[in-house]
Amino acid sequence: MKVEPLRSCIACNEKKTKKELLRIVREEDGSYSLDLSGRKNGRGAYICPKLSCLEKAEKRKAFFRAFKENISEESLAKLREEIREIAE
Ligand SMILES: [Zn+2]
């Protein structure tokens, strides 16, 4: 049996397989989006597919740690929408 590599959520630090987490990518133009195909280029970070972890990530400055920059309110709102669609 193949052992799945684990990734940890940038908000709660729980270790899970890639399938159980969402990959957030910072694209070259500086925008953030969810990488649902797993093939987007850019710096990525993993997060649980729930809004509570997104809020936690924001509060804990997890985006700054993962991407070395503060995420804009606009990008955050976009991610919130994308996660909300998946989480429902
Ligand atoms: Zn989490």
Largest sheet: 3 strands, antiparallel
Order of helices and strands: EEEEEHHH
Low-confidence spans: none
Distance between the termini: 32 Å
For the record, the CATH architecture stands as: 2-Layer Sandwich
Number of helical regions:
3
DSSP strand content: 15-25%
CATH superfamily, by name, is YlxR-like
The quaternary structure here is single chain
CATH class: Alpha Beta
Helix fraction, binned, reads 25-40%
Record the strand order, biggest sheet: 4-3-5
Total domain units: 1
What labels describe this entry?
88 residues; alpha+beta; two-stranded antiparallel ribbon; 34% helix; binds zinc ion
Folded structure, characterized:
There is one protein chain. This protein is an alpha+beta fold and 88 residues long. It has one domain (6-87): Hypothetical Cytosolic Protein, Chain: A (2-Layer Sandwich), CATH 3.30.1230.10. The chain is 34% helix and 22% strand. Strand 1 and strand 2 form a beta hairpin. The longest helix has 15 residues, at 73-87. Zinc ion is lined by residues 9, 11-12, 14, 47-48, 53.
State the gist of this model:
By secondary structure, this protein is α+β, with helices and mostly antiparallel strands.
Write the layout of secondary structure elements.
Blueprint: E1 6-8, E2 15-17, E3 22-26, E4 32-34, E5 43-47, H1 51-59, H2 62-67, H3 73-87
Antiparallel strand pairs: 1-2, 3-4, 3-5
